[in-house]
Design goal:
heterodimer, A: 69 residues, alpha+beta, two-stranded antiparallel sheet, 23% helix, 9% strand, B: 6 helices, 86% helix, rod-shaped
Chain lengths: 69, 202
């Protein structure tokens, strides 16, 4: 699980505790929510944390880096 | 010939006075040197004991040795030992100061990163507490353990900040290291990625 979480700008801030996930093919916010929280219904937590790059919880792109709160 | 006989006791008395005089001078010098050694040590002791405690015993042993020689009447040895102490103390005071600066730098770095680690953990715990089912590799007992670990770490972080505010950098850093270890443990339990600085630094 943790190996799929990517940190932004590794080395730039060695204390950065932000948890990241890079979207892969076939993933949805619900699937990502299930992966990290065990519950797909908590996908809005991820959406809320990424409102600066997501306009719609149903529209995520492969390769997008999402914060996982 | 007869007059020479009178000179012998006079010379002996003069020699005796000279010896007593020299001994007295050495005693005074040793007394002053021991006093100077103790004063220099008393001035630096607090910081040395706080930041490089393992090196404090050497000075205390040296002062004790000088005093023992003094008490035995070995004033030359007491003087030699005591005279060397202030320079040694000066070196230790500089080393303690350098250690304090090093710890303050580490604290500055850690005090910027630790709250972010704790915030990230709290955020994840809050969400997991709303979850109807936990993710793989995490069960209720582990989650409760992680929550307890987080609470202990957050409390100790407050203690570390209070120690730093009180001027006790060494104690603050010791507590901060414990907080970091606990935070790393909790993050690992929760399947979170540990910040590079927390994972690699001592």
């Amino acid at each position: 699980m943790a190996d799929e979480e990517k940190r932004e700008g590794a080395g730039a801030d060695a204390w950065d505790a932000t948890q990241w996930h890079v979207v892969e093919k076939g993933e949805t916010l619900s699937k990502i929510s299930k992966k990290y929280y065990g519950d797909p219904n908590l996908y809005m937590k991820i959406f809320e944390a990424n409102k600066d790059i997501l306009k719609n919880p149903d529209l995520i792109k492969i390769g997008q880096k999402l914060r996982i709160p | 010939m007869k007059s020479k006989k009178y000179w012998v006791p006079v010379l002996l008395v003069a020699f005796g006075l000279l010896v007593v005089s020299c001994g007295s001078a050495n005693k005074e010098a040793a007394t002053a040197a021991i006093k100077a050694a103790e004063e220099s040590w008393n001035a630096a002791k607090g910081e040395v004991v706080k930041y490089i405690p393992d090196q404090a015993k050497g000075v205390e042993d040296a002062i004790k040795g000088a005093k023992e020689n003094f008490d035995k009447g070995n004033f030359d040895a007491a003087l030699a030992a005591a005279k060397a102490i202030p320079d040694k103390v000066k070196g230790l005071a500089a080393a303690a100061s350098a250690k304090k600066a090093e710890l303050a730098k580490s604290w500055e770095e850690m005090s910027g990163g630790m709250p972010r680690m704790l915030d990230a953990i709290k955020s994840r715990l809050d969400i997991l507490s709303q979850s109807k089912k936990l993710p793989e590799n995490l069960d209720k007992a582990k989650l409760e353990g992680a929550r307890g670990g987080y609470e202990a770490a957050a409390k100790m972080w407050d203690d570390a900040k209070a120690a730093f505010s009180g001027g006790n950098v060494a104690d603050a850093m010791a507590k901060a290291k414990t907080v970091k270890e606990k935070a790393v443990e909790v993050m690992t339990t929760l399947g979170m990625q540990v910040p590079a600085a927390a994972a690699t630094k001592g």
